[in-house]
Amino acid sequence: MKHYILTALFITSVSFAQELTLERANGLAGLPLKCMQQEFPNKMGQLIADASELGTPQQLHPAFYGCFDWHSSVHGHWSLVYLLSKFPDIDRKEEIISKLQVNLSKANIEQEVAYMSKGHEKAFERTYGWAWLLKLQLELERSPVAEVKKLAANVKPLADLITERYIEFLPKLNYPVRVGTHTNTAFGMSLAWDYAVCSGNAELQRVIKENALRLFKNDTDCPFDWEPSGTDFLSPCMEEMAIMQRVMPEKDFLKWLKGFAKQLFDKNYNWEPGEVSDRNDGHLVHLDGLNFSRAWNMYRLASQYPKQFGHLIPLANHHFNYSLPAIVDGNYEGEHWLASFALHAFEEKAYLSLKM
């Protein structure tokens, strides 16, 4: 009887959240399509050794020059590959495939590899951009669309280079970065872990697990009330929880979580979404991303542990639905990247639905 009631609660709470329909997929696909070959405005993360290294964004990064910055371009490409996989009849399908083929050509990726192979660019996009590149590679490899799946071979050398960078870097990191922005250590490790598992890379799994435990296992009482900082787009507490959920056995994880985030076990726990005061401000709009970050991690937690955390689904939906309508508001400050965050939340919610 208790199981029946819990299942009913799942169905009710999930049904109230907006679903990823073909209509919505078409709208979300339009955002990365709009900017994936839009070179300006552009925020470069370049370390210039001398004048010979100056160049336009497209000259320096022929694959990932659009959508304002390198990492946003990468996860914009992931968004399109993901949507093609989920919706075979998506509008503008041929345009999506064509633009992916142009940007992810063998020659373009070779130039991206050459750029990241520079000795003074070892920290380029570490680890946020690295993580999204591995997520893109994973989506390419498992794509059911033949023309897209072929592109995985082009991108693989860049994924291999980033894998080597992770294996080299993580043991050197004496202290984790717990901010809610790009350099958050836990988020970068989580997406890399998913790639390592799905690609069967045992060495990358080993390095991520060993260092996640070393960096986070002794953490307790994460200060949920300190979130969010003014321009967070990731939840530091939830992202740390996410990597530990991935690398720890269930019994060990639940014991650790009771010391790290005991409030999540409270059936009446409430957590207000981050409020955005001005979506024309490129930094303040980050808080929409934070809401998606909280949502996708609560969905994953409820999916794996429905008995302990099924009560978090309405809270995840509340965060999700607060920011979802803002994605198509016409402001480039948010639309060039937020579609990817929404889709990642949809992705985790879909896994939850499958387990109901």
Description of the structure:
The protein is mainly alpha-helical. It has helices at 2-16, 22-35, 57-60, 70-86, 93-103, 106-116, 128-141, 146-149, 151-169, 185-199, 202-216, 236-247, 250-260, 286-304, 306-309, 313-323, 332-335, 338-354. Helix 9 (151-169) packs across helix 11. The protein is globular. Residues 1-16 have low confidence and may be disordered.
Key phrases:
mainly alpha; globular; disordered N terminus; 356 residues; single chain
Quick structural overview:
The protein is mainly alpha-helical.
Write the layout of secondary structure elements.
Elements lengths: L1 H15 L5 H14 L21 H4 L9 H17 L6 H11 L2 H11 L11 H14 L4 H4 L1 H19 L15 H15 L2 H15 L19 H12 L2 H11 L25 H19 L1 H4 L3 H11 L8 H4 L2 H17 L2
Helix pairs in contact: 2-4, 4-7, 6-9, 7-9, 7-10, 9-11, 10-11, 10-12, 11-12, 12-14, 14-16, 14-18
How many helices does DSSP assign? 18
Helix content: 55-70%
Characterize the largest beta sheet: strand count, sense, and whether it forms a barrel: none
- Show unreliable segments: 1-16
What is the CA–CA distance across the termini?
Answer: 15 Å
Strand content: under 5%
What is the strand tally? 0
**Structural class of the secondary elements?**
mainly alpha
Cα shape: globular
* CA-based gyration radius: 20 Å
- Which H/E pattern describes the elements? HHHHHHHHHHHHHHHHHH
Give the integer mean of the pLDDT values. 94
